[in-house]
Amino acid sequence: MLIIIIFLNIILNFLLFKNLNFLQKILIISDIPNERKIHKSPVPLLGGTFFLTNLLFIFFIYCINDFSFMNLSFDKNSIISIVGGVILFYILGYLDDSSKIISPNLRLFLSVIILGLVLYLDNELILTSLKLSFLNSGELIKLNNYVGIILTIFSFLVLINAFNMTDGINLLSTFYIFYIFFVFFLLGIFNINFLFFLPFFIFFFIYNNKYQIFFGSSGIMPASFFVGYIFIKSYNQNILLYSDMAFIILLIPLLELLRLIFLRLKNSHNPFKADQNHLHHYIYNNFSFNKTILILLMIYIIPSLIVIFELSFHWIYTIIVIYFYLIEKYKKI
Predict the structure, then answer these.
(1) What is the pLDDT of residue 35?
(2) I need a labelling partner for 126 at 20 to 30 A (CA). Which of 36, 175, 275, 276 fits?
(3) In terms of Cα–Cα distance, which of 110, 239, 133 is closest to 187?
(4) What's residue 333's pLDDT?
């Protein structure tokens, strides 16, 4: 069954990417070069549209044939909430990509509204307790309903904005998203059917590497919401044992988010306004593109190894030191 579905998916993605320019004329979203951009001509921002198409396709197959790539339990409300959330975040990202009139504050407000609707549709997504790996007692920290709702929404917002920090250089964000899918597989959250997504990522890597397509906000926002949904749902269903596992796996994007918010506030700038102070900017200014991607992927991937191989969490301190060492070494060069 998997082979047949992957074959159909290859055809789907071949048609999507083959008609890239035609679809761009219909959807009219491109990344226009400016002083912060590396590329010199407009590039279609259709990566998110194609990712959404793939995701909706597999959920459609799941509904008609009970084909799933996740080892999670879903009822009708769960399906509606995850699909609805992905679509709404795609629309929000699409508006951001196409119009550029959505301010960071408005985007934040609309994100909260969407997340509130998602939790209303699926209250089993709400965090009701926290179990932290560094507490020897192993006891749960109980959360009342209001605290659980606020903490769940806050966790989503942090994750979405953290993933946005990875989107600024070709291949990085999508490589990282696919790696997170692979981590889900290793942790037993996804099953082997997650390879369904492989054709999309292969096609995207090829076209993205040639500056023929970008992921855009319409890709980052629904993809990061989807990842956040899987993290929280797998924790609530006791597949992910500790609530801080997600923090460890996503350590570098979260550090980037905290560092950039602090830096922007220090300089009296909007904490969510784009700039060129990202780690990937610093590395790219000092290395070739291939070396930059290799260095960044290594830095992004290393924290997850702590969870996968059940290493001592003391390694986190070493990773944090390496991260800030790279920042200090290359930001002034």
Answers:
(1) 57
(2) 175
(3) 239
(4) 54
d(CA 164, CA 230) in angstroms, rounded, equals 18
Residue 84: its pLDDT value, please?
97
Whether 86 and 222 have beta carbons less than 8 Å apart is answered as yes
Distance CA 297, CA 283 (A): 12
CA distances from 59 to 66, 79, 86, 210, 287 (A): 9, 8, 12, 30, 41
Separation in Å, CA 285 to CA 260, 282, 331: 18, 5, 9
- The structure's pTM equals 0.94
Token output for 323: 């991260």
d(Cα 70, Cα 59) in Å, to the nearest integer? Answer: 11
Both ends of the chain: CA-CA distance in Å? 53
Q: Which residues pair with 174 in a beta bridge?
A: none
For residue 173, give the nearest of 24, 293, 276, 291 by alpha carbon: 293
Distance CA 88, CA 31 (A): 21
- C-alpha 53/C-alpha 55 separation (Å) is 6
How far apart are the C-alpha atoms of 317 and 319, rounded to whole Å?
5
Give the model confidence (pLDDT) of 140-180 as tens digits: 889 999 999 999 999 999 999 999 888 888 899 999 999 99
What b/e sequence results for 260-272 when a residue is b if at least 16 CB atoms lie within 10 Å of its CB, and e otherwise? bbeebeeeeeeeb
Helical (H) or strand (E) element with 151: helix 145-164
* 125/229 Cα distance (integer angstroms): 8
Radius of gyration for the alpha carbons in the chain, expressed in angstroms and rounded:
19
Q: Which amino acid would we find at residue 9? A: N
**47/60 Cα distance (integer angstroms):** 20
Alpha helices in 165-278 (DSSP H): 172-186, 198-209, 217-236, 245-249, 251-266
3-class DSSP assignment, residue 88: helix
